[in-house]
Amino acid sequence: MTKTPDFATEADLVAAFVADVRGQNDHHARHNAGCAPGQRQKPVWTVYPETAGWDLLLVDQVGVQIGIEAKLTLNAKVLCQALPDHRWASEHGPDYRAVLVPADKVQANMHPIAAALGLTILTVRREEHWGGKVSVYVHPSSLPDENGGDSWSVKGWRSWLPSQRCPLPDYVPDVEGGKPSPVALTAWKVKAIKLLILLERRGGVTRRDMNHLGISHSRWTDAYHGFLTPDRIKGLYVRCDRTPDLQAQHPTNWQQIESDFAKWAPADLLAANDTAPQENAA
After folding, report:
1. Is the pLDDT score of 278 beyond 50?
2. What is the number of other CB atoms lying within 10 angstroms of the CB of residue 174?
3. pTM of this prediction?
C-alpha cells in the first residue's frame, strides 16, 4: 500500500470529501428506509457548494448546518476564515464550523488551538492499493448526529448554537466547492435567471416583469451599462452584448428554475399560455 501524492488543488480535496459524504448518505438513506415509524433517522446531508461564504455548507434533513472552509495547509488564516466575522453578530451562522485539510498538512499543536476555538479539523488522506484502487479516509469518520443519543455522535464537534442559521438558496448550486474565484448562486442570480428565462420565452421583458421578480431596473436598463437594451418597436427590453450568459454558468440550476416556471412566472404570461391553442387538441 502506498500513499498517493498530495491533493493538487483545493477543488480535488473538496471533491474527495464530498464523495465520502455522499457514500455516508447512501448508507444512512438505506437505514432510514428500513426504520419503523417514529424510529430515529440518521442524518442525510445536502451539500451546498460556495454558499453563505463557505466553501461547503452541509445541511441535514432537519436543518442542522455545518460550515466548512477548505485549504491545502492548515494555518491561522483558514482558522480565522471559519470563525465568525467580527463585524457581524457571532450568534448567526451554521451549527458547526470546520476546516478541511489534507491529513499530512496538520501540525500536531493545531488541534488544541482549533478545539479551543470551537472548530473541528476534518482531514482527508488517500491510499493507493495494489491494482491501482484508491481509498479515501476522512477523520472524524462521522459527521455530527444531534439525534444520536450519546456523546460519541457529536464527539469532536462543538455546537455554536446559532440564533439564526445561514440562509439557503432555493436551489443547490451547480458549482464545485474549493475553486478560486468561485461562481456562486446568489439570490440575485436566481432572480436574474428567471428574468432571462422570461426573455427567452417572450422575446423580451418589461419593467413590470422586473418588479414581479424583485429586480432593480437600473442595473438592467441603464443606457450605457445595462444588461439589456430597449427595442422601441416591440416595446420590450432585449438582449445586448452585455447580457450575462447565466445558462452557461449554471446549466443545471437554469433547468431547475425553468421547470418551476409555473411557480414564479407573472400571472399574465401564465394566463396567455393557458389560453394558447394546443397542437393535436381533441
Report:
1. no
2. 16
3. 0.84
Taking 80 as the threshold, does the pLDDT of residue 94 lie above it? yes
DSSP state of 85: P
CA atoms of 217 and 195, how far apart (whole Å)? 12
* H-state helical runs in the chain: 10-33, 76-82, 110-117, 187-202, 207-213, 217-221, 246-249, 251-259, 261-264, 267-275
Strand-pair category, 2-3 with 46-51:
unpaired
CA dihedral sign, ordered 69, 29, 176, 17: positive
Q: Cell numbers of 246, please?
A: 447565466
171 pLDDT more than 50: yes
**Cell digits of residue 75:** 494555518
Residue 193: which of 148, 144, 249, 149 has the closest Cα? Answer: 249
- Residue 73 sits at φ, ψ, to 5 deg, of -140, 135
Cβ density class 234-256: b for 16+ within 10 Å, e for less:
eebbebeeebeebeebbeebbeb
Burial of 114 (0-12, 13-18, 19+ CB in 10 A): buried
Q: Is 223 buried (19+), middle (13-18) or exposed (0-12) by CB count in 10 A?
A: exposed
pLDDT in tens, 18-30: 999 999 999 999 9
* Displacement of CA 174 from its chain's centroid (Å): 8
How far, in whole angstroms, is CA 247 from its chain's centroid?
17
